[in-house]
Amino acid sequence: MRDTLTSLRYRYWPDHLLGEILSKRWTETAIPVILLLIVGFALSRSIDHFLSPASLADTARQAGEIGFIGLGMALVVIVGGIDLSVGSIFALTDFCALYLLDVLNWPVPAVVVATLACGALLGAVNGVLIGYLRLRAFITTLITLIIYRSAFDLLIQRYSNSIAAAFPDIPSWNFIGGGDVFGIPSVALVYVAIAIFGHIFMTRLRPGWHITAIGGSRRSAYNSGIPVRRTIALCYVASGVLTSIAALFFAARLGTVGGDIGVGLEVIVLTATVLGGITLGGGKGSVAKSLVGVLIVLLITNGLTTLNARGGINRMALAGILLVAAMVDIRWQKNRTRIISKVYVAPTYHALPPPPATEIGQGGPFEQNDKLRDVELIGLGRIEAPEDVILDRNNNLYAGSRHGDIMRFFAPDYQRMEVFAHIGGQPLGMAFDRQDNLYVCIGGMGLYRITPDGTVEKATDETNRSMHSVNDDSRLRLADDLDITDDGLIFFSEATVRYEMDEWPIDGLEARGNGRIICYDTKTGATHTALRGLKFPNGICVASDGQSILFAETFGCSIKRLWFAGPKKGLVEVVMDNLPGYPDNINLASDGNYWLALVGMRSPSLDLAWKMPGFRRRMAKRVPVDEWLFPNINTGCVVKFNEQGKILESFWDLRGENHPMITSMREHRGYLYLGGIMNNRIGRYKLENADPNFVQYDKRWGKLS
Amino acid sequence: MKRLRFNQQEIVFAVFALLFLAFSIFLRGFLTPENMLTLLQNVAVLGILGLAMAIVVIGRGIDISLIAALAVPPGLVLQMVQNGHSLPASLLTAVLLTIAFGLVNGWLIAYAEVPSLFATLATGLLLAGLGQAALFQLDVVQWSDGMKGFERLGQGTILGIPTSIVMFAIACVVVAFLLRQTRWGAYIYAIGDNPYAARVTGIPSRPIIVLQYVVAALIGCFAGLVMAASVNSMPTRIFNSTLIYDVILVVVLGGIGLSGGRGGVLNVVIGTLLIGTMLNGMTIMDISYAGQNLVKGVVLLLAVITDSFLNPRNEETAQQGDI
User: Fold this and answer.
1) What are the structural domains of chain A?
2) What is the pLDDT of residues B47-58, one digit of tens each?
3) Per residue in A670-692, is it b (16+ CB within 10 Å) or e — as a string?
4) Which domain holds residue B185?
């Protein structure tokens, strides 16, 4: 009863989603956005017409102006600096625009260009000082703040009257200041355009990546050849230009030059920047964060002004929200990875009946023996981690290595070894097609094809993204083993969509059906997911009937059959379940039966733990990883089973010296070749009563003439 | 031969000496005892604030909220006395408010790990807003009869030296003692030099950081009292001015690096003298306030640029996140 409840609870409650959602990058922006929603909701309840079109348009106009400066500040903060002079640049460029328009009567386009140039120039001063002369950003922009401000003060003393006296009535100028398109203010439109460009620039273009890299680690960026000084200088220029855009709109909207224009603006913008979640010190930030920060600050200040709050209360509210948001943000940034690593592992209920006996004297097909004691060794100490082994028609032996190579051992004595192909990821399952191309599953990379002359080609590394998955499961994380049907369909297993290659044992701890079988069509090049929700699908072998594949579910301890053709197409049948170990690769035997490697044997402790998801979750949260209870992969064996799922015989290495764990085996001309992912050798075992001329692919596809 | 190298402190001192020399020669009425005293008197408050900032900056922080500490608690004293409370009670309230404020600052920075620039920016706004919203009736809090005698903190002379200068000197001695003679002072340097190493060594770095901000706020409050006494009122709108930037300039120009662990009281004195000399000289030359600021800024910029040429920063040793 209790087990049933546990099993139902873990079947239907999606524990794994929390960790997956938290590990999404966009959750970093979630806190500012939630704050924005709270502020917006609170204000819309307390102020009438807060969300009316007129009010929104007004907010958008101001948000656009401050938003431009916010973008500039964001850029500068991301590159690892700070720009305190934006308020003064804003004032100076505002003056510049009005002076050119009102006093010198320049045409509007020229005014726009000149104002932008003015902003670029003022920003360039900062940029040269900070980027090239490597002054400290804080102190330098502090000084330029004072210089620009006093220059502005001197200028308006002289010209404020003549500017105030002029009333330019130029349609294009008025459009900049107060125009709209379908009710959307001009400034907001320009802001949206620049923001979209900024987003693409920061996330998709090389200079944007350089900026983030410099902010993340200036030293590493410098050492890797990024033009650090120029990039930093240009960021300040961009900040100046963006500020001057804001000033242009402001000038067109109000047309005045008061003495206190832009005073304290740097504080507002800095507040918005940090509130949006752009970390001071650099390396982190986005356009969306900048916009959210600006909106929060603007909503609060505008809302409180509308509520007729005294200036002091306005300030206190802003400061209070600022502090709370900063604290939450900093705590979150600091503990995010730790929290994710704690909640990401989401074990589920997995019950298995007691396993069949394997002890000596108990009888049965699994009874331990010492048949693999005296195997011949190939490549001892020269090869690392041969997960799968395969032989071609010319009797040469191929095996993957941990270093991302496919090694080839030459017949007949397998002493000479060469790198057949370099791929870069760890090769797992392998299979030859009709044209002697070698298809290989590469952990972390996908399915690759190696032509007989050693050229590496990518077959596929993505499949269709499923609708209900939070993790992006369109990429292949852990392609494991494959086989090729007579029609040229390649079925390959992906062991898990939740963990990377190096974390695969954790998937066994979860015991959830995280894996899937994917089908790649060599004729069309299309990939689709054939079956999902499997418990670490591993070995795959096309059955003798040519209409179904046999696949092993490692942590399901079972072998199943998937019909891909014929009357039962699409059905899945259990061939064997409750195996005493964790099944790995499956391959054809010369007598029409199948070979199966058991990579490790089940243990009572893990079997028990699999029925106790809460226990495993607590373990994952409280105990360091190297102390976790993991599936045993230290002893294993090879078994032979028939089409009906009956075990015929088993092969063990009791001494555990040569083949304590076996992940694959391949029969070839009377010998069985053994590989293991934790091993440094390939074993060659002489089979009795086996067909001495058996070559797997000759049998499948006929001899090549 | 040993290569000639100057540090920023020496450069600023040289600039100060040159300026002083030039003004003495070319400006009539500069090098007179009266003018010297005026010069010092004008920068005394700035100097005291510089000391407060120095303590925080040496511990690798920055305190933007100093102006709020300067304006609000002394303003509260004036307001409370105006409202009929006794002077000691008002002073005590103000000191408690200041300590509480310093504790909040310190807690945010040391325990909540909010960057100091940001934390003090916000708390400064908070305190100023509190003053504006709840404590003061007018922006300028006026002197009242109950304050009689207290104005001697900022006016008059002691042994012929204006009181505000004496106060600056006293503050210098106290801070110098705190930094150089006490264990806490040594801890502040250690934390500023390398916070992680200091923590590993067993220095109670978080309480020490809190202490820094409490002491800084108290000194800021003291500066405010001196200022209020010297002008017989407390213009609380001073929070909106750019005074805090002048304070930072005093500290940084004096040679206390923003990366912490370097410098001392002498640096603050030198920085203050440079700013004071410049302002005084330009006032005698009758340059407008904006013009003075412009000249000040340019001179400061030149000093910082010179420093960057003589002591270039190295990409390899620059600290990450050191803005």
Assistant:
1) 17-341 (1.10.3470), 371-464+472-701 (2.120.10.30)
2) 999 999 999 988
3) ebbbbbbbebbbbbbbebeebee
4) 8-308
